[in-house]
Structure to design on (789 residues):
């Protein structure tokens, strides 16, 4: 089970950023007919080596270095046997069909369902071979949670962090429907995403825009933190009906994720009642190894079954769990041929399968718009009002110079269009080292992507695109309509600045990708460019396409920096979305899905990745000693004033809050511990509504707009030092016309108001007084009330 490839730099976004999975709309992407694999990228048998291969090369630096993983045995409690699927929680019919089909298979055929097999004629990231004897056509698995990678005629959807910044459940669900539809049309049975987990633990993590990085680090997590932070979104996903969950390459409490019986058998299949398959130690609960299984699966697993080491019932259950989602989602009836739209070589002639839907354009645009977060707007610099002269600066304003699929190049893409590429990029672009014209080479030390705008992060979670609208394209069109004189300079670090320009737009970015962590949370080149422009232009507007937190204290207090937009990673509609906000065609409504500090050190000990050192140089350790105190919880505990707090975001109008009402339900039990049968996701009573909260939000300004009303809960016992001051437990986003009001309603479930009791191993409803706070951010909470248990 993973929140990305590993727990060490988690930053998936279902609780804070993809909350729709916990609602009736939770099966949105499922209804589109593809499996959800909660995790990111392909995890497999990398769990099995005794020592970390990439760290074991060369001479050990420490004479007392641990060299055998037997040293760690027992640190993660063993949980055996692996529970068999029962077919409950609405999976009864699928379970019955899967069990019947498996009953007709030989053991060799069952093994086919439990391991990937390379397929040379299609470009699926994982393949399950067909079994003709029972009419099973096979499966195609493909990356990733932000749209399809490595093919054509698909959409580059807004990224996870971008949709998270929208705080819009409906929009998140619509994006899921649209994405699932594209996967289905391409013959992709299993979508390898999205990634889930809490706010990114390691702020410089390379995949904070969508998930965690791949390292051989052991994520050592205490029981309460596991349940209240890391397991929480998996509960939502399982309850919503996800078909598969991916384990991780790294270790969890020093037991490899894909062989961790506590995580797979104990937490996932027992506590959460998960009915389906775990992807990528069969006895530890693994059901499917991907993208291939040699040499530890396949024949070796059959040998273990034949000699009794692995029970026959475990193989049968593995096969049933893989097939059950296939039946549940209707892949046995009318589903396209697996991988039909995933050609092995996109440069060669192939069948065109256009997976896009014209009806999705509104979702693509709205998703791109609502993930922009306006955090500064001095002297009402925005929206722009038909300026006579406008100048644009910065490397991230324009398109990359080419997007064509050159032979031998496409498989090496890390960004899609060549904003950044592992191959040298020619034709007079900026050089990443000295910022001069020349060639640019993407390396792990590069803080920015200097060859054009970015709309996605890099790596296996990156998306392909059929087109991209860059900021310069859309703004140029608006300048044409407004008869605005326009100048631009994308390449110069110290460009000439025309003081007659009514507005100067500086567009930069933050590079981030799988495989490496960010070198810092700011960069000298972009900060210097902004200050240089601001020194001569009294209306300097900054736009940053960022894949995670980006510090701005090097320039934000400059009196001529009048506006700042965190533009995140908007997908292919990037330019048109930004232009619509800049010119006031839409009112910005995004909120920060993370905290922006004033200094890197404000993030505390989790700002940097954990590295090999001392006796643990072969087995790096990441001790999650911060417990529940991530992001805004950490800033609250340490009483640190952030630059921009979690949940903050400005609008072109203003809002007020009033009339808070709190009502305890009289129809449910307020006993300390939950009761009722185990359903998918946890005990039934965990999902009962205990408290209803309403509040009024008024648009006090002169512009129609949407506001994200946020509810934070303080539970009794925060003085114990292990409980956060307050936690986000709900949000609503009404659109309110100027001078009008809307009533927002929040429902707090038993889980929302409970903590995990490590002694009883149950969710505990503490006795005492609970405080409810509602407002526009984690620090702006004008209305408060209490209830008592």
């Amino acid at each position: 089970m993973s929140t990305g490839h590993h727990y060490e730099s988690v930053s998936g976004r279902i609780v804070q950023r993809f909350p729709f999975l916990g609602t009736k709309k939770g099966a949105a992407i499922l209804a589109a007919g593809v499996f959800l694999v909660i995790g990111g990228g392909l995890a497999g048998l990398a769990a099995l080596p005794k020592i970390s291969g990439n760290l074991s090369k060369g001479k050990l630096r420490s004479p007392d270095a641990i060299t055998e993983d037997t040293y760690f045995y027992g640190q993660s409690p063993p949980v055996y046997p692996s529970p068999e699927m029962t077919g409950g929680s609405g999976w009864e019919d699928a379970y019955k069909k899967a069990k019947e089909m498996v009953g007709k298979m030989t053991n060799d055929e069952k093994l086919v369902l439990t391991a990937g097999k390379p397929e040379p004629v299609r470009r699926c990231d994982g393949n399950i071979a067909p079994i003709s004897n029972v009419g099973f056509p096979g499966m195609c698995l493909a990356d990733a949670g932000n749209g399809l990678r490595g093919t054509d005629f698909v959409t580059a959807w807004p990224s996870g962090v971008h949709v998270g910044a929208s705080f819009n459940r409906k929009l998140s669900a619509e994006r899921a429907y649209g994405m699932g539809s594209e996967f289905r049309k391409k013959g992709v049975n299993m979508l390898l995403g999205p990634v889930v987990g809490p706010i990114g633990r390691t702020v410089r993590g390379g995949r904070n825009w969508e998930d965690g990085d791949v390292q051989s680090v052991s994520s050592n997590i205490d029981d309460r933190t596991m349940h209240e932070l890391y397991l929480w979104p998996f509960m939502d996903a399982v309850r919503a009906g996800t078909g598969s969950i991916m384990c991780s390459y790294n270790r969890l409490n020093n037991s490899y994720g894909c062989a961790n019986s506590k995580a797979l058998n104990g937490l996932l299949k027992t506590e959460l009642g998960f009915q389906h398959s775990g992807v990528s130690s069969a006895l530890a609960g693994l059901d499917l190894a991907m993208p291939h299984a040699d040499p530890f699966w396949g024949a070796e697993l059959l040998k273990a079954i034949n000699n009794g080491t692995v029970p026959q019932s475990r193989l049968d259950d593995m096969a049933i769990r893989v097939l059950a989602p296939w039946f549940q989602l209707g892949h046995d009836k009318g589903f396209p041929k697996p991988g039909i739209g995933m050609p092995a070589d996109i440069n060669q002639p192939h069948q065109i399968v256009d997976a896009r839907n014209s009806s999705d354009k509104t979702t693509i645009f709205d998703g791109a718009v609502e993930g922009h977060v306006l955090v500064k707007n001095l002297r009402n610099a925005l929206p722009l009002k038909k300026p006579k002269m406008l100048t644009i600066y910065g490397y991230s304003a324009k398109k990359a110079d080419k997007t064509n699929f050159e032979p031998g190049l496409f498989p090496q893409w890390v960004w899609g269009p060549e904003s950044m590429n592992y191959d040298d990029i020619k034709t007079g672009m900026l050089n990443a080292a000295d910022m001069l014209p020349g060639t640019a080479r993407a390396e792990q030390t590069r803080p920015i992507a200097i060859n054009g705008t970015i709309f996605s992060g890099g790596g296996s979670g990156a998306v392909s695109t059929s087109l991209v609208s860059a900021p310069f394209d859309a703004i140029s069109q608006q300048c044409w309509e407004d008869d605005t004189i326009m100048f631009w300079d994308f390449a110069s670090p110290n460009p000439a600045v025309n003081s007659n320009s009514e507005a100067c737009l500086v567009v930069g970015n933050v590079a981030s990708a799988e495989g490496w962590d960010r070198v810092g949370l700011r960069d000298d080149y972009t900060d210097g460019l902004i200050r240089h422009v601001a020194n001569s232009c009294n209306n300097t507007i900054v736009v940053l396409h960022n894949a995670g937190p980006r510090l701005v204290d090097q320039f934000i207090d400059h009196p001529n920096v009048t506006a700042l937009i965190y533009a995140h990673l908007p997908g292919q509609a990037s330019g048109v979305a930004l232009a619509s906000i800049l010119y006031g065609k839409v009112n910005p409504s995004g909120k920060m899905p993370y905290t922006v500090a004033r200094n890197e050190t404000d993030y505390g000990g989790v700002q940097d990745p954990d590295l090999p050192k001392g006796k643990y140089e072969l087995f790096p350790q990441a001790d999650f000693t911060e417990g529940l105190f991530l992001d805004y919880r950490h800033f609250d505990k340490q009483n640190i004033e952030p630059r921009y707090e979690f949940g903050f975001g400005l609008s072109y109008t203003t809002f007020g809050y009033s009339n808070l009402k709190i009502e305890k339900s009289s129809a449910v039990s307020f006993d300390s511990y939950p009761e009722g049968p185990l359903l998918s996701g946890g005990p039934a009573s965990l999902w009962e509504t205990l408290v209803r909260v309403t509040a009024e939000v008024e648009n006090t300004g002169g512009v129609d707009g949407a506001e994200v009303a946020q509810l934070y809960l303080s539970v009794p016992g925060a003085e114990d030092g292990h409980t956060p001051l307050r936690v986000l437990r709900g949000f609503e986003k009404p659109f309110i016309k100027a001078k009008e009001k809307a009533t927002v309603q929040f429902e707090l479930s038993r889980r929302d108001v409970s903590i995990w009791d490590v002694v009883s191993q149950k969710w505990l409803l503490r006795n005492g007084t609970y405080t409810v706070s509602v407002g526009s951010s984690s620090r702006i909470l004008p209305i408060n009330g209490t209830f008592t248990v």
